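hey all, quick one before standup. I had two proteins in the batch that finished overnight and I want to keep them in one place so we stop losing track of which output belongs to which input. First protein below, input sequence then structure tokens straight from the run.
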Amino acid sequence: MKKVYEIIIFSLGWFSIVAQFVLIIQNRQADIPETILRFFSFFTILTNILVALFFTVKFFNLSRKSFGLFYKNGTFTALTTFILIVSLVYQVVLRSAWEPTGLQLVVDELLHTIIPLCTFICWFFYAEQSDSKIQSVIIWLFYPIIFIIFIFIRGYFSDFYPYPFLNISEIGFGNTLINTTLILILIVFIMSVLTLIGIKKNNSKTT
């Protein structure tokens, strides 16, 4: 059953990413190089790429030498945390901001709802003991921190911010700093909860 989840998640993931790329190119408001850069400036896209890669690597048992990051302890829990953040922030903050239709609606639900849910279910049933080592999970905080720094630097020069709650030009640096701090706290909280769930599940298996 684990393999079924893996193929479902990476198939939906790659379909959604490619479809979203086509849609953003078709509806671009800037030249193609800038549009591509903007596409890869979304935490949603980057995280779904990481999740799709993770399950692709696991399903096909790809080379540990080339894809060692995806075999490291804690990676599954960290990526599950980030994809849950993608879903939570979208459902709470962004869903009401627009009303996608057609293919965009399908892709939107896949990226923000279906894939996060499937990833969590797969993690809950199939995460291993090595995925619940807090030291290995917490090191993944480098990913959202680097993302935020990149967005701030790029936004300073281009005035493009992928999310309204990160838009320094619109809401000011102070409010943006508060928002990023809250998101990082939420990430740490979910990481901790998932790690504790994993530890408890593994302990129950050994007793």
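OK second protein, same deal, sequence then tokens:
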Amino acid sequence: MNTKKEFIYNVLIILAIILLDILGDYIIFNKDIFSSNFTLFLFKTTFTITLLTIYIINYIYSVPKFLFKKKYLQYFLAFIVMILLFAGLRFFLEEVILYNITGKHNYFFDVPLSKLVSNYAWDSFYYTLRVCLVSAVVCLFFRYNENKEEIYHLQIEQEKAKLSALKSQISPHFLFNTLNNFYEELYDDKPKTAGDILKLSKLLRYVTYETNEDLVLVNKEITFIEDYLYFFKRRYEDNFHVQLHIDGFVHNLKIPSLILIHFVENVCKHGIINDKNRPANITLTINDNTLELRTKNHISTSDTYTEPGIGTKNIEQRLGFIYKDSFILDYQKNDNLFEAYLKLTL
């Protein structure tokens, strides 16, 4: 339970379940546990403990672990286990512990064994089903509210980012027109420089216009990375040693915009990229609906970064919002070697 409010709500719901059981016993069976004998009170207490145990297990583990992840078969198996746990725990508390204290059984043991087992099984199924339904609905309610809050905060952050971009940007049209003019002027005399200007214009145009969508085509992100590395190579010339490997067929897969470039940028910013004996490696593997990115680079002994920074934490939050638990993000730093690993299930 993530919040105090959630805890309080669950306590109130559990109390409501207990009170309804007491009221039901009073109305249907004319049993008043407070004015009747103490034995009945003990049996009701152990029964409540059993219900509470199943409620907590289902709420904290089974529903988030299986039901929310659409692992319905696993949840069904977990439900069977909870039925058995309910029956076993209740039998232990009532027929072992309380029997040794009070000398009384909760069920009539003078009935045939088959009927006794049948009654116990149906009771266990009914009460487990009821408490699992209640705890699942409550858990779903809080998860729904959490998602609403996440969406709200993400929308606020997106609006802030858009406003910041609007404040900081020079008119893109003016910038692109200027670059196009430079391209045309240099095309005949300096075709290589003109080509670089055109590539830079495409790179900036992609960042400015095409990344407004939450998801973009993987091949466009790959082209952006290749152009990004191209300009680093132009800067370092033959002293640039970053190896990019791309394996697999892209299809029409989409990923969050500017996610991959974050890791590539970290390699170029923090990594040693001008030593041919210690080249940096960037490997992108696409297999079916899975995308994996691995980066490996040496870092200088003077580089103090030892853990993901704010940018990386923002990336992780963004991935968590889009993919929930369907992604893996891992970092390893051993001596002067830094490795990053990202896996997305698309």
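Flagging for whoever picks this up: The radius of gyration is 31 Å. The mean pLDDT is 80.
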